[in-house]
Specification:
CATH topology of the largest domain: Rossmann fold
Number of domains: 2
Oligomer: single chain
Strand order of the largest sheet: 2-1-3-4-5
Radius of gyration: 19 Å
CATH architecture of the largest domain: 3-Layer(aba) Sandwich
Order of helices and strands: HHEHEHHEHEHEH
Length: about 200
């Protein structure tokens, strides 16, 4: 027999789950209500042009955004919807020795900028991810990329903080709650992966 306390806890948990699912559905629906789908297609075209010219994609972010950077880089290097040749992409959040060493020797604000200087080449695409838009190391990473002739793209929540001023393109998710923003990142990122695969390998 389920105790009253367990019943209340389960009922509360169920209601919280329903509320968050409704919030997520509403935010994803809002993606259709603005210019974001066109921005997604434009970003895919930019990446395709870079890859065809021998470029690569550099992703970077902190915390959950670091995980998103790793996830999306892996989709390019591995595969997304079908088997094909690998596509060059790096997550600058992945090398713990570089991140901690640069942070210790130069300051945490430089952990991405210095890696951009090491790996970035003019014509590459640098994608900085920051839910708040005010992560200074992401801002500095985009500045370093711009100075070296990389294409700069930001993924952020609303309103986007400092990133819209630092990137050529800023895709702002229609949410302020961190969890909802990050859920949108994955949908947008997967859409970009799919469009790039289709364009690069001729499969729809």
């Amino acid at each position: 027999m389920v105790s009253q306390e367990a019943f209340r806890t389960t009922t509360h948990g169920s209601e919280v789950a329903r509320t968050r699912i409704r919030e997520s559905v509403a935010v994803h629906q809002a993606l259709l209500d603005n210019e974001l789908p066109s921005r997604v297609a434009e970003l895919a075209e930019l990446i395709v042009a870079s890859l065809r010219n021998g470029g690569k994609v550099l992703f970077f972010g902190n915390g959950g955004s670091a995980a998103d950077a790793t996830h999306l880089a892996a989709e390019f290097v591995g595969r997304f919807r079908f088997d094909r040749s690998p596509l060059p992409a790096l997550s600058l959040s992945d090398n713990g020795s570089s991140v901690s060493g640069i942070g210790n020797d130069y300051g945490f604000d430089d952990v991405f900028a210095r890696q951009v200087a090491a790996f970035g080449t003019a014509g590459d695409v640098a994608i900085g991810i920051s839910t708040s838009g005010i992560s200074q190391n992401v801002v500095e990473g985009l500045r370093a990329a711009s100075a070296r002739g990389l294409h700069t793209v930001a993924l952020a929540g609303t309103p986007g903080g400092d990133l819209p001023d630092e990137a050529e393109r800023c895709l702002r998710m229609p949410a302020t709650d961190t969890a909802r923003v990050q859920e949108c990142y994955m949908l947008v990122g997967h859409l970009v992966c799919e469009l790039v695969e289709q364009a690069m390998f001729g499969r729809g």
